[in-house]
Amino acid sequence: MQWTQVTVKTESEAVEAVSFILNDLGATGVKIEDAKDFEKLRPGKFGAHGEIIDPNDIPHLEKGAAVTAYYPQNIFVPEILPTIKQRVLALKEFGLDPGAGEVVTSAVSDENWATAWKKYYHPVRVTRHLTVVPDWEEYQAAQDDERVIYLDPGMAFGTGTHPTTKLMLQALEMTLRGNETVLDVGTGSGVLSIAARLLGAAKVNAYDVDDVAVKSALDNIELNPKAQPIKVAANDLLAGIHEQVDVIVANILAEIIIPLVPQAFENLKNNGYFLCSGIIADKIQVVTEAIENQGFVIEEKMQIKDWYGVIARKPLPDE
Residues that bind S-adenosyl-L-methionine, according to the entry (predicted)? Predict the structure, then answer.
């Protein structure tokens, strides 16, 4: 079967938004190439047979990012290209830099699609305790307290090492002490749910509005027996969810965090934590204002380059 490949040349800060646009217009999956994924890599066992390779020798983007979507034959791509271009350039209105926003197309076979993205994905130590490893790589933990998350992002999700994901992995590591109940909103690949369980959470329920994300999360959970069980279901944020939990984590866009804030407050126990990321610098003030106006206390603002994460706490009644 032939697919049409649509590649949007953009900047690192816009990859999640561009991916959403492409998926929203019918893509069966996306591949993300981001120059920043290589910035901190050092020579390691990146070869096909475990040999030491310098990451600089691995073909990759030198700057910026590219999001490639795959459309099946039943979608007439020329018809949706103008919409893709318009929506990508409109990201400026939301404080995101889409970069060149250039859109190019080509044909690709099933075989090329299934393997093209693997050369960009290698084991990465993302926090003190958490390492993300592609499921096709062999990896030996370097320390006793290192937790290894195995992922197969397939064609729908990135590597799990985007700054927004790193921020939430760090926030979970800072917040969890053991036996917590956790809600993961907009779970995507399921990486945050898996991390929460490996860090000691007793129960994790994960939700995503996208059925592709639900399947991806379930597949990745299967790769991590130590993190099971985790419940995954399709849901629009926390609409219709009414349960009191210790921690809610959400790695989504700022515009989606704001309507989530009152839902998170309702579903948290007193003294529970709301962890959120996906917030570009231009949006951090409006997001923190929405969080504080709801009654949360902001314990920590975290930053990696232009991206922010927030650790907020639902106060006790007598505070």
Answer: 165, 186, 208, 251
Query: Is there a binding annotation on residue 165?
Result: yes
Would the annotation count 208 as a binding residue?
yes
Does 186 show up as a binding residue in the annotation? yes
306 is in an annotated binding site: no
- Angle of helix 191-198 relative to helix 163-175, nearest 10 degrees? 20
pLDDT digits (tens, 9 = 90+) for 282-307: 889 999 999 999 999 999 999 987 88
> Which residue, of 120, 154, 186, is where some domain finishes?
120
**Which of 216, 213, 174 is closest to 195 using CA atoms?**
174
Q: How many CB atoms lie within 10 A of CB 293?
A: 10
Q: Residues with Cβ < 8 Å from 45, sequence gap 6 or more?
A: 51, 52, 53, 123
pLDDT digit string, tens, across residues 127-150 = 999 999 988 888 888 888 999 999
Domain count, the chain: 2
